[in-house]
Amino acid sequence: MDELGIDVQVVSVPPPGADRLATDDAIALARAANDTISAWSRAYPSRFVGLYTLPTSDIKASLDELDRCTGELGMRGFGCYSNLNGRPLDDVSLFPIYERLADLGHPVYIHPTVPLATEATDLDIHPVLIYGWAFDATVAMTHLVYGRVMERFPEINWIVADVGGVLAFFAQRAINIYTGRTDELRDRYGLTENPIDTFRRFYVDTADHPPDTLRCARDFFGGDHLVFGTNYPYGPNEGCLFVRNSLAAVDGLGLSDVERDAVLGGTAARLLKLA
Fold first, then answer.
1. 3-state SS assignment for residue 227
2. Contacts of 34 (CB under 8 A, 6+ apart)
3. Which residues contact 133 (CB under 8 A, 6 or more apart)?
4. Long-range pairs for 227-235 at CB < 8 Å and ≥24 separation?
5. What is the DSSP letter of 235?
6. Terminus-to-terminus CA distance in the chain, angstroms?
């Protein structure tokens, strides 16, 4: 971190997580992961911020663990996945978790995981990682919008890894389709606002994408909804290459000093209530 000029690192559990396991194993894994991450955060409170994972196969156990993480362990948000062992994020069984998060004002960080369509497409791991995960993140965002989770729980800020999947790249097509069908969509799904406006409420991270990709995301979501991401510790040079790439990409956007400071930390600090 010192070598790369990183002041604070937000730590979460990458997929696969506790969501894949049945209750007892899920609880044990979630507790072990949360204890480890919170130990780093408490040992170095100015350098690490922890996001908790939850044993979502059991909602009561998830609520108990959420209370332990936010009370005893002092963790700052929920590290979630684009689906929870095949369960979409607008599943009503998850609403008690969202209610607790809304009361706390904690953000949710969504990382893509094994896509729901993997078996149907019969793809091996490499194209799934390249294309499938981005698609699944976009599907997750769509569930949160059309399932009215975003409208029901406006207190929750949602951050999506890897520039928010493919939504920004198809933004004009989405706008074209939604324009003129807004009333139909509102009636069908009970939406109170244009879904495009709701999609723009997501925050997205920059993780190892070049400036052109980040410009596309900024044009759709807005520069104030970009947060710095790196995919560390994955990648060459013990993860350092991806961090350097991400820093160079942000520099390549030609942002003002104020905008750059927001992307590199200010916005994340606000979402995590660090500032």
1. strand
2. 50, 52, 53, 65, 68, 69, 73, 75
3. 82, 112, 113, 115, 162
4. 227/159, 227/203, 227/263, 227/267, 227/268, 227/271, 228/263, 228/264, 228/265, 228/268, 229/161, 229/162, 229/205, 231/207, 232/9, 235/208
5. S
6. 20
Report how far residue 33's alpha carbon sits from residue 79's, in angstroms, rounded to the nearest whole number: 11
**How many angstroms from the chain centroid is the CA of residue 167?**
14
Q: Which amino acid, one-letter code, is at 60?
A: K
The string of DSSP codes covering 7-66 is --EEE-PPSS-GGGS-HHHHHHHHHHHHHHHHHHHHHSTTTEEEEE---TTSHHHHHHHH
Its pTM stands at 0.94
CATH topology of domain 9-271: TIM Barrel (3.20.20)
The pLDDT tens digits for 215-228 are 999 999 999 999 99
Q: What is the mean pLDDT of residues 86-112?
A: 97
Least confident of 60-74, 164-178, 249-263: 164-178
Distance CA 174, CA 55 (A): 34
Q: Is the peptide bond before 211 cis (omega within 30 degrees of 0)?
A: no
Residue 155 Cα distances to 6, 104, 108, angstroms: 29, 9, 11
Question: What's the CA gap between 180 and 194, in Å, rounded?
Answer: 11
Q: Read off the pLDDT of residues 11-64 as tens digits, 9 standing for 90 and up.
A: 999 988 999 999 999 999 999 999 999 999 999 999 999 999 999 999 999 999
Average model confidence (pLDDT) across the chain: 92
CA distance linking residue 262 with residue 4, whole number of Å: 18
